[in-house]
TrEMBL record:
<dbReference type="Pfam" id="PF00076">
    <property type="entry name" value="RRM_1"/>
</dbReference>
<dbReference type="InterPro" id="IPR039599">
    <property type="entry name" value="RBM48"/>
</dbReference>
<dbReference type="GO" id="GO:0005681">
    <property type="term" value="C:spliceosomal complex"/>
</dbReference>
<dbReference type="GO" id="GO:0005654">
    <property type="term" value="C:nucleoplasm"/>
</dbReference>
<feature type="domain" description="RRM">
    <location>
        <begin position="21"/>
        <end position="99"/>
    </location>
</feature>
<keyword id="KW-0747">Spliceosome</keyword>
<dbReference type="InterPro" id="IPR035979">
    <property type="entry name" value="RBD_domain_sf"/>
</dbReference>
<keyword id="KW-0694">RNA-binding</keyword>
<dbReference type="GO" id="GO:0006397">
    <property type="term" value="P:mRNA processing"/>
</dbReference>
<keyword id="KW-0508">mRNA splicing</keyword>
<keyword id="KW-0507">mRNA processing</keyword>
<dbReference type="GO" id="GO:0008380">
    <property type="term" value="P:RNA splicing"/>
</dbReference>
<dbReference type="InterPro" id="IPR000504">
    <property type="entry name" value="RRM_dom"/>
</dbReference>
<protein>
    <recommendedName>
        <fullName>RNA-binding protein 48</fullName>
    </recommendedName>
</protein>
<comment type="similarity">
    <text>Belongs to the RBM48 family.</text>
</comment>
<comment type="function">
    <text>As a component of the minor spliceosome, involved in the splicing of U12-type introns in pre-mRNAs.</text>
</comment>
<dbReference type="InterPro" id="IPR012677">
    <property type="entry name" value="Nucleotide-bd_a/b_plait_sf"/>
</dbReference>
Amino acid sequence: MPRYKDDSPAIRVYTVCDESRYLIVRNVPSLGCGDDLKQLFSSYGEVEECKPMDAEDCEPFTDVYWIKFRLFSNARFAKRKLDDFVFLGNRLQVSYAPQFETLSDTKDKLEGRRREVLARLNRKFRV
């Protein structure tokens, strides 16, 4: 039998197209805590919108929220830090929502990633 540390960990890889400045937050307690949730996510960057998604299926006594960040990098950081974060007794489930992006959002995202990669390559070759 393999030891605990011998098993490879489950790793989720996101491509540029999977990531988004739009996040879906599930398992939020149904306590009318949208302002508190927005404040929590705002600590990772400017949140343009935070609203409940009434049409989404969710567990009893929980809500689903849609959050729109101004910058992709802030959404990426918030997702990394707040996925599985315990908020008012519930473990949040944060996922990207690229289906809400407009064509210009996608273009900006891909152009930003291109600039990031070029900056890393230029730094690598200067050393």
